[in-house]
Structure to design on (406 residues):
């Protein structure tokens, strides 16, 4: 059976989202069709405001409300301007903020270097990062790119670029995830956990 | 960290969809923010057209394109008007159509009887079903409500109502799902599979 056009259109649009297959897409569509409150309308409105209502922070390139030049974190006096945490995506900022343990500011690269996909240093916010570091205010850069091939490559490239500036460079620790199981840990994670083992005899 | 308003609005709207938690909602939102093609715009448009572009078939109450009085199945001469399959939701029609094995037409109740939730016979399309059956054209009614408490209750109620009309009444078979595992089947399913066991000695 062919679905009516407007329904098929929405199923197709939902299917283009990551992690949503055709079955979930039609389940969502029929849910919206049945819902009494105007969830479909609310969603449509939120989607339309998404890009027009947001912009990038001129300092760290995190997402912020349109009309502001700086994001909340860069604008806050409570954050330590001496430490910058470099991440790939705005969602990574969110994940780190959830820990509540990072006192500094961020720099969002908007991607990672990937020779295969043709993403070079000029496609990322690397020049802007180096400019920030040259201002002299920053004492430490935490490279928090993803623990993937591209993320590691990006961190290595940044290390090379930042080293002449005399800023301390650190990278997030690798090892076993909390709550994980040694038995199911993959080889590379175990290798990293072994290489990065911490001394308990001094404690 | 507080998310910028337009982002939080979309995360909230996505979170109201079934099966989408706050984490998936923010993943989808940031995906849309990053995507170069106008997926957010396409989604918004499809959502706005959803309710305005669809209506219910006057015959079977399945969803159809706005401006049509009958759905494709009711309008088709290839479908057997002598068999009606009664389902709870339009999605159930889709599931049965995927099998390609049903030659008849449908009747969508839009729900199931539920004394607990206060859903009675007048809240469903039961009167319209009985009217269709009284026309005399229909030889068999397949009760394909869900194999749940509400679905079974609805089927029993319909059976009572339809019996005086002299139409053959059937119910979809219960038993072990194809590809399932006897070991993991729940007690009720096994009970049904036992009670409905089929004779192989005559084959």
């Amino acid at each position: 059976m062919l679905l009516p056009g407007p329904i098929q259109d929405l199923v197709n649009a939902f299917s283009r989202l990551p992690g949503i297959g055709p079955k979930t897409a039609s389940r969502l569509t029929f849910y919206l069709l049945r819902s009494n409150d105007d969830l479909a309308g609310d969603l449509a409105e939120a989607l339309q405001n998404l890009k027009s209502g947001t912009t990038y922070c001129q300092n760290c390139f995190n997402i912020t409300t349109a009309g502001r030049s700086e994001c909340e974190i860069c604008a806050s006096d409570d954050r330590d301007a001496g430490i910058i945490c470099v991440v790939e995506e705005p969602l990574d900022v969110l994940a780190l903020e959830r820990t509540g343990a990072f006192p500094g500011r961020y720099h969002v690269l908007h991607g990672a270097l990937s020779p295969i996909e043709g993403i070079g240093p000029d496609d990322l916010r690397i020049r802007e990062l180096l400019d920030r570091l040259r201002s002299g205010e920053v004492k430490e850069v935490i490279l928090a790119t993803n623990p993937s091939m591209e993320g590691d490559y990006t961190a290595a490239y940044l290390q090379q670029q930042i080293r002449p500036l005399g800023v301390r460079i650190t990278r997030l620790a690798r090892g076993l995830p909390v709550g994980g199981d040694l038995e199911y840990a993959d080889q590379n994670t175990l290798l990293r956990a072994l290489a990065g083992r911490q001394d308990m005899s001094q404690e």
